[in-house]
Amino acid sequence: MAERKMSATNYVSTWMYVESPKEGGLYPQVGGLTTSQATQNIYWRCVYTFFWSAHAFLKKDGVKFLLFTNIAQLPVVDGIDLNTALADFGVELVTLRYTWAPAGSRRPWFNQYFLFDILDYGAARLAADDTLLVMDNDCLVVGDLSAAFDLARRDGALLITVDVSEDEDANGLSRRQAIDVYAEIGHERPAQPPEYFGGEFYGISGALLARLMPLAREIRLRNDALAATGNRYFSDEAHFFSFLMWQLGLRAPNANHIARRIWTTWKLNNTRDADLRLPVWHLPSEKTYGFADLFARLAAPKAIPADPARLQARLARIMGVGRKSPRKFVGHFLRAARRRLRRRT
Prior knowledge:
The protein is of the alpha/beta class. It has helices at 37-58, 82-88, 114-125, 146-155, 175-186, 206-228, 237-247, 290-299, 308-319, 326-344; strands at residues 10-16, 64-69, 76-77, 80-81, 91-95, 131-135, 139-141, 157-158, 201-205, 259-261, 280-282. It has 10 helices and 11 strands. α3 packs antiparallel against α6 (206-228).
């Protein structure tokens, strides 16, 4: 009798690292102390809406949902018990220690290397044909991801580029400056500034993870040595991941049609009609606005369309995706003014 082949498992995940007062990372998009519950709740609302959207668009596809965090008990936010609410979406809670924090004293975006604790976990759990998508919690799933899973299995990784110029500081290191770090750590100098594969969206197969993590541990030692001596180093996980991809010969984006970093304020606004055809939106400027509004609607609850097309259209209006919205401009302006007023009083 022929042996039955097990089907591959596709995982969709996000993460939330709760910092201690000693760690005290800096995250300029939200302001406030990252150790305060009020600031952390900004991210917890994003976590809830992320999994709500993933469940709404992917629940029929057999996708497994994972939340990676460093705490065992989730909070109650605005009356919603996240332990119960996320369990209702089928989310599995995975508690990890943060062991990948780089050497040095850099505080901005301190928690970003938690990604590699997640990938370490994935390397132990995933079979070769399984796939793992890790997204920032200020993302929304708004479409089918079956093509993304297939692409991750075929190519090993899903790589999206962010609109970062060659000399723009990307969390402590520009792409041009990265040339020297690549040469120092990898003993091969890129002929031009390497790609910066965005940190909000990672997709990877179990097969590639098995190759990636031994290399990551080796490169980590060299990177930490540079950081400890005050030299330029891979100061965030996206630079580090981009270098690992470069070492593995994966040097070109292949997933820009799947996810994109979309800015939606009036001053910084890059949204376009084509964004409505993406299955994943990353919305960093909506943490304190669009995600808070959506969370409140879901908590009420207000009527949310069940039809996928109507639901995506409603989310586009709430988040300001697809076109510049005067209503969003006024909302962002008023909330920014209130934050400034609170700081003065």
